[in-house]
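Database export, one record per block. Field names are fixed; values are copied verbatim from the stored entry.
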Amino acid sequence: MSKNNENNGGFNSFRDRHPILVNSALMALALVALGYIALLFIDVFTSHGQQVQVPDVRNLPLEKAIDILEDAGLRWEISDSTTFYENYKPGTVIDQDPKAKSYIKKIRIIYLNVNAMHAPIIPFPKLVDLPGRQGMATLKAMGYKHVEIDSVASEMEGLILEVSVDGHKVAPGTPVSVNSKIKITVGDGSIVDLNPEQILDPEMLDSIDEANYQDAQKNYEEEMKRVEQERKSQQTSEEKKSDKDKKKEQDKKSSEKDKKKN
């Protein structure tokens, strides 16, 4: 007891003589201890030293890919599922990140690129009377992939006479899948009217072609505007209907409350 008292007395005496030095040493020890504890927590939180191999889930249906990843203790998220690829089945995993066979920590997330469930469906444009090349370019720009041109005998050369989708005629504005097979029938100008009274010079023919092109372009733009206006009108009607339903529901609740009060 006497030795412990002497040691405590000596430490207290040293601390009284050098308070700054003693407090600094105690703070340093506390910082070291806190740093060690923090490292232990980081190791636990980040699963330090615990790595797993990423399974290959490409070309698998999404549901099966999820089962495999979850069985491996891995988390997953879908990074993209809006693009449709013809060479993949709908809902199939196209790519993954991190890559298959790589080693990662279990806290990492596997991002999946999934093929869309169906090809985009968009309103079909008005093409009749447009030049064939313009019609082809319009369809390609809108995303239609399978477009072919056929020619038939006609008086006017190069103008679209008929359009079919999967073997059937469709009206402008009809929703059509971009994967549908589209056939454009264009006149070849091989039919010549030999009536002398109707023979036209080349300059007049050029002016007629230009007029047909401008009229067809104008008709196409007006048709697209009409389709857009109908869509907006339908949306507005649905919103008004929803507002009316909400108001009826509110009036019904108010009436029930008044009945309860009475």
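Remark 1: Residues 2-45 form one domain.
Remark 2: Residues 202-261 form the longest helix (60 residues).
End of record.
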